[in-house]
Structures are given as C-alpha cells and as structure tokens.
Amino acid sequence: MTRFFLKSSIILILMILSFASLANNKILLIGDSLSAGYGLEQAQAWVHLLQNKYKENNKAVTIINTAISGQTTDNALLKIDAWLAAHQPSHVLIELGGNDGIRGFPVKLLQKHLTELVTKSQQNGAKVALMEIQIPPNLGPRYGKMFTDSYGKVADKTGAHLMSYFMTEIAVNPSLMLNDNLHPNAKAQPIIRDFMYDEIEKWLHE
Known about the structure:
Layout: H1 2-23, E1 25-31, H2 33-36, H3 46-56, E2 61-65, H4 73-87, E3 91-95, H5 98-102, H6 107-123, E4 127-131, H7 141-158, E5 161-163, H8 189-204
Parallel strand pairs: 1-2, 1-3, 3-4, 4-5
Helix pairs in contact: 3-8, 4-6, 6-7
C-alpha cells in the first residue's frame, strides 16, 4: 500500500511539473518579413492568428514577435542580447536567413551567425528551434542546397530543434502569394498558423 501511494505521488508530481512547464512557455520569435506580416494588417498575420488560437484553446503559450522586414542574421545578432534580457524566454524560434540568401551571403558566414544566435539563446536558458529556410532558385542549385543544408548542420552542432519551413507548399502556389512572389498573402496566413501550431506542439513536447 505504501509503495502504491509513493508511486501515485511521483506520477502526480511529474504531471504537475509537466503542466507547469507548459504553462510558462514564452516563445521569442526572431524572424524577418515572413513573420512580420509584410504587406498585411497585423490582425491578418499568422503570428497574431496563432496567438489567438492558443487563447481559444486555453494554452498558456505567449509569442513575443521581434520579426523585422529585411532582417538578416547579422542584424539579429546585434539585438539578441537585449531581447533575451528583456523577455527571458523559455523558448527561442529562429526564422532567419532568407534575406542573407537573397543577397548571396557566404554559407559559412550564415552558419556562423546562426550558431551564435542559437548558442546565445541556449546560454540564456532557452530551448531553441531553427527553421530550415529555403530560398528562390535564382542563385543556382548548388548555392541553394548548401544554404538549406546549413540549418541541419547548425542544428546537429548545437542540439537545436530543426523545424520544417512553413513556406514550402505555399511558395509554389501563386494564389497564396503577394504580387512580389516572395511573401505570403492574407489567404495563406491561416494555413501558416495551423502549420506552425502543429510544429510548435511537436517542439514543446519533445
């Protein structure tokens, strides 16, 4: 009987600790125009829609969106210490690199910057997810592959969670893109919201 109560107590404590960890999920999103809602009202953007979905589902997850249109990995490195100090996130999601790739930044430099962003976040006590960004094919298949492969390499090196790219299916559908063919339109935002809801759930529970 004593053993039964002891086992039950341990299970209850683990459940409480698990719930407490979920209740304190504060995600710092470091991104670019794809997460900043470029060309849209903020109420239409996927981050806003996702936060509303968490509220509707009574999930205590807060997203702190620091995404800035045009942001590159080196821009983010200048700001990340201040963001981490100000918000003390439990999790950091890095959606960056698209602007680096479009400008043809060297792949080794991309990897260096991403590694620094991940390690700074980890040193601040956050769990980190790195989104595997893909770029348009105009810079050639060799550079494109080296660019995308960089994310897996950094994730393997740092232990960060490698997250799938939310634009993979959207970018090839003109009806979901703005006229610039680079940014998702309002119709795409709920699709991204649902994709990210599932991806973040996997990350939070791994």
